[in-house]
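tool_call: predict_structure(chain=1)
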Amino acid sequence: MRQIALPVLLLLSAVPAAAQTAHNSAAPIDFGADHIELQDKANRAILTGSVSVRQAEMTLNAARMTVAYTGQVVNGAPQVSRLDAAGGVTVTQPDKTARSQYAVYDLNKRLITMLGAVTLTQSGNTVNGGRLTINLDTGRAVIDGAAVGGGGSTGVTSRSGRVTGTFSVPKRN
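tool_result:
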């Protein structure tokens, strides 16, 4: 499996350095959904229907999300360790927007992995692929164009097995 980071690095270079600050993964997580099911014995919550999760300046939207948390309680709240999102997933940060079919936000590793028909848009540039990994500490994003899974009924494959995209060209006099 080959990883192609160059197009994404070019995207990041087009954004001022101030916009590439590390994400505050210790910030509280606010959420909204049409329905929530708490499964305390399994240490998880299932959110369905127009799910929206916000942490600091990042928003994650999806049709469905599973929130995994530890049994440890700090300041009266369980500690969230992972968010699994499915169905029209969108991750929005001030300088970029990513879309996919599925996403996993590992709060301990501070990584977001997005799978299936991934599109990353930043500063008028667009990159498409099968899998996107965003490191929230560094802001580095890596898109892999190879098929992610077996496809089948889940459809978790990229369209062509390649990273594709469009870069904007500045106007010149």
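agent: The CA atoms of residues 23 and 136 lie 5 Å apart. Proceeding to next step.
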